[in-house]
Design brief:
heterodimer, A: 280 residues, mainly alpha, 12 helices, 0% strand, globular, B: 188 residues, mainly beta, Lipocalin, 8-stranded antiparallel beta barrel, 11 strands
Chain lengths: 280, 188
């Protein structure tokens, strides 16, 4: 932001290249396991691979990660696994399970802040986040298109990384960008090998859960405008039409409206946080 | 007989209650500032300050080694004269003020004269506590026009921010941070 000497490649390696490669390798493992008939294991492992691949980036960004956790970010790197796993809960309890587990996981991350909140504040935040989390998981459960939904989420994540970076934190922008790299790696892999649709959708849902927690962290610890974050996540509500081709071929032309629609509110969020003064 | 009994008794009382003679001061926030400067890209030094400081100190010109100070800085009160930069410095990349709302200094010892010396103590920044040595110079003391008794000191120390876990952008933003303390206190 102020012209550091670190080369762009050195910055890009932990944020983009490592998680992307990790996602591809882990995606191949999942693909092979699925092919070998380990359906149950793959069902749970699919979103976990997203978290693991992201962790390769996150521990490179938060280099002082320690166990047992001492700082909020130490907790964050661990607790993000909880909502990611909760996306695999049975559908009848998924919404409530995802909401409650996400809140409990984030409560641990936000211990220093929770202690300073009044009861009414705490209650308001709790209700607000449960609502947002419920809507997000419900909307993602409606998705049937394993080509357009990840592309749409990818667009939102990239824009949110820019919003967070411009707002206040490069480290959190990098963590957000890493989620995009992971999902992007998997999406690219799905273009080369035939990843089952439900597997790709499960991974995308895992990435969404991870992304929401990164956004929450950015809001609470870096004061990123909550309205900007909610606005840029609005395209989650758009249910993309099912794939029409039956031979597995994707409709590349559909990518353009997908990206445009997904970026529209993100650009508005960018405008909302655009600094009045130059940061450079 | 009586005199030979009283002299050691009075002497020991005076020694035991040495701190009674040291004056206790409350930091006057209106005349106290903590500034820090840090290298910017090798071109210049950027100066910022903290606006909210509170604390107490004890100072006795006759026994300066008994001097002690406790200062608490509200890390959210950072002011670098650039709102967007302030938000960035307060964020997780640097001070992480939501998680670490206070910066503190608690002295553990003083070496030097009544007007100049080195104040050692525990400095806590970004949740990390380290011992530092602050070079102290006394500026003056006396009664102000309203009858309050005041004293004032300046202190400087250079720390490495990376040692406190504040290690983002070390390429462009210097690692060495020179902290300057300008403190004035009112005797209680």
């Amino acid at each position: 932001m102020y012209g550091e000497e670190t080369s762009p490649l050195a910055m890009l390696l932990p944020v983009a290249v490592y998680p992307l490669l990790a996602a591809i390798v882990l995606g191949l493992v999942i693909y092979k396991l699925d092919g070998a008939g380990y359906k149950k294991a793959v069902f749970w492992a699919a979103p976990v691979l997203i978290w693991l691949a992201w962790l390769t980036a996150a521990q490179g960004i938060h280099t002082r990660w320690q166990f047992p956790p001492r700082q909020a970010l130490d907790w964050f790197l661990l607790m993000t696994l909880v909502p990611v796993l909760a996306t695999r809960l049975p559908k009848n309890i998924r919404m409530s399970g995802f909401g409650i587990s996400s809140m409990l996981a984030f409560a641990l991350v936000a211990q220093p802040l929770v202690g300073r909140m009044s009861t009414i504040d705490l209650f308001t935040h709790l209700v607000g986040w449960l609502l947002l989390l419920g809507v997000a998981i419900l909307a993602s459960d409606q998705q049937k298109n394993s080509f357009r939904f990840p592309a749409s989420l990818l667009t939102m994540i990239i824009l949110s990384a820019i919003v967070i970076g411009i707002s206040s934190s490069l480290a959190l922008a990098q963590m957000t960008g890493a989620v995009a790299a992971v999902l992007g790696g998997l999406w690219l892999l799905a273009r080369v090998i035939r990843l089952p649709d439900d597997l790709m959708l499960a991974c995308t849902q895992g990435a969404m859960a991870l992304w929401i927690l990164v956004l929450a962290y950015a809001h609470y610890y870096a004061d990123v405008n909550i309205y900007a974050l909610v606005i840029l996540a609005l395209p989650l509500l758009k249910a993309w039409p099912e794939l029409t081709s039956t031979d597995g071929k994707v409709e590349w032309k559909a990518l353009i409206p997908t990206v445009l629609i997904s970026a529209s509110t993100g650009l508005m969020a960018l405008w909302m946080v655009w600094p009045a003064q130059s940061l450079f | 007989m009586m005199k030979s009994f009283l002299t050691p008794a009075l002497l020991s009382t005076a020694l035991l209650s040495g701190s009674v003679f040291a004056a206790d001061y409350k930091v006057d926030p209106a005349h106290t500032a903590v500034l820090f400067k840090i290298n910017h890209l090798g071109f210049s030094e950027t100066v910022a300050r903290f606006n909210t400081i509170e604390g107490n100190y004890s100072y006795d010109a006759a026994n300066p080694t008994a001097s002690k100070i406790v200062v608490k800085i509200d890390s959210n009160s950072l002011d670098s004269n650039h709102a967007a930069r302030d938000k960035h410095i307060k964020g997780p990349d640097f001070l992480d003020v939501k998680q670490y709302p206070e910066i503190t200094f608690k002295s553990t010892g003083y070496k030097g004269s009544a007007t100049e010396g080195t104040l050692s103590g525990e400095f806590t920044l970004h949740g990390v506590t380290k011992n530092i040595d602050l070079n102290i110079v006394k500026i003056g003391e006396g009664k102000d026009p309203w009858g309050n008794y005041r004293s004032g000191f300046n202190g400087t120390v250079t720390i490495k921010r990376s040692e406190f876990g504040v290690d983002q952008m070390l390429g462009g933003i210097g690692d060495d941070v020179t902290v300057e303390l300008f403190v004035e206190g009112i005797r209680q």
